[in-house]
Amino acid sequence: MRPKSSRRISLSILSLTAVTMMSAASTESKLLPKSSWRELSDSKNLSPNNGACYFEFKLENGSTAHLVVASISDGKWRLRPYLADKTTPTSTIGKEEKASAAINGGFFNLSDGQSASYIYLDGQLKADPRKNKALVENPKLEPFLEQIFNRSELRVLQKGKNKATELQIAKHNDVVPPGYKLLDSLQAGPQLLPTLECESEAFLRKQADGSLSDSIGCRKPAARSAIGITRDGYLLILAVSGKGQDQESSGITLAETADLLRRLGCRQALNLDGGSSTSLFVRRAEAENANGSSVCAKDPETRVKTMLLLMPQ
Fold first, then answer.
1. Residue 61 falls within a domain, yes or no?
2. Secondary element (H or E) of residue 149
3. What letters, b where the CB count within 10 A reaches 16 and e where it falls short, cover 5-18?
4. Which residues contact 29 (CB under 8 A, 6 or more apart)?
5. Peptide linkage before 143 cis (omega within 30 of 0)
6. Which among 15, 150, 188, 215 would be 20 to 30 A from 257, CA to CA?
7. Model confidence over 208-244: pLDDT tens digits?
């Protein structure tokens, strides 16, 4: 489902060489967000109307991008992970939890729904990939397990006794900064910004026979889910559709996802589970959207194990 009024914004992230009539500097300034999501237009306010908004725009290759922006630093919004008892559509949990937005989260087994990512809720470990037999008993993955267990995660931190929260993207084994308390975390990966970490996080793996395994199609166009954090405390939630969500869309690579988030102003960014799992739910302020809707998802919507929920404080 799409907003009735949505401007096609040409983001030339895929074939800059096609533009031959402008200099590189001129191209960037006219066709791309140069340094911030604020250069986009036609935003839709989220409900409740506390400053969070939703954008839909077109990439140059025809793929549709969906973006939610909210300020975390001012204390009006909180992002929290959600671990479902069994695999469930993202929109179902978004509606049940009365979230203003929800996006699919970390990786999981298609066979039994068991999480392949660490999940902490209220400071307690709720999902441990070391207990995932499909992961730890796979001989092809054995040489890479320590890298897999140390993949990047989103952390929700609280400083001192202050109720305000801060977001951080870090490797799982990184120490929580002094003076901060870990509230929640959701592991996914790879890290997109400040650097793309496909190989160090074992999404791209060189096997013993010399072949290269690309477990999530890092270098191929696909539907993508991701989050980013700007220098001025804004959270960006991004979903880019593929053919499974939009027949006009081919999706983008992880390098292109990282570049898009960088141009939208992010200094840190994390890839989430993508492809058929990519699903974004938003609750806009318009009366007809009071219950929210899926703006990017397969039909029928893919059932996932974990989500990230944007909640009003």
1. yes
2. helix 145-149
3. eeeebebbbbeeee
4. none
5. no
6. 150
7. 888 889 999 999 999 999 999 999 889 999 999 999 9
Span 21-37, pLDDT tens digits: 222 333 332 335 667 89
10 Å CB burial of residue 283 (0-12, 13-18, 19+) is: buried
Q: What are the tens digits of pLDDT across the range 131-152?
A: 999 999 999 999 999 999 999 9
Structure tokens at 228: 């980013």
From CA 212, how far away is CA 205, in angstroms rounded?
A: 6
Q: Which residues contact 102 (CB under 8 A, 6 or more apart)?
A: 82, 90, 91, 93, 94, 280, 281, 307, 308, 309, 310
Q: Is residue 149 part of a domain?
A: yes
The pLDDT of residue 265: 96
* Strand residue runs (E) in the chain: 44-45, 53-58, 64-71, 77-89, 101-104, 119-121, 124-127, 152-159, 165-171, 180-187, 191-193, 204-206, 212-214, 224-230, 234-240, 266-271, 280-282, 293-296, 303-312
Domain membership of residue 223 as a residue range:
16-74+117-274+283-288
